[in-house]
């Protein structure tokens, strides 16, 4: 019987060894999976850090563009003001030109009238000169 108990004991020990070996192999597989999961998490962390850096760069670019847009808006506003001043100046110049044309036309008419009067005066003076010469003779 003692021999039978030893065989049963060895069988139990062999079964326990197999169970331990299977458990160790499972633990190794689980450990490998955990290592892979850790590596994946580390990779994800690195990716997140790169994305955050890109967001920072993008934010700086957006802030720079916003500042540039504000400058361009100020320049546009200045150009609009200059344009309004130029339009007002153009209207003034156009009015001055209209007045000048009216004055110029009046001046031309006055010169024409004076020329006619001078011509009439010349004719009258010639007639008077002729009459004076006739009276002298």
Attribute tags:
single chain, 137 residues, mainly alpha, 0% strand, rod-shaped
What's the story with the biggest beta sheet?
Answer: none
CA-based gyration radius? 57 Å
The 3D shape can be described as rod-shaped
Kindly estimate the percentage of residues that lie in beta strands according to DSSP.
Answer: under 5%
Number of helices: 1
Helix content: over 70%
Please identify the structural class as seen in this structure. Answer: mainly alpha
The domain count comes to: 1
Strand segment count: 0
Describe the structure.
The chain is mostly helical and 137 residues long. The chain has one domain (1-100). It has one helix spanning 2-136. The radius of gyration is 57 Å and the shape is rod-shaped. The mean pLDDT is 90.
Describe the structure concisely.
With 137 residues, the chain is an all-alpha fold.
Write the layout of secondary structure elements.
Blueprint: H1 2-136
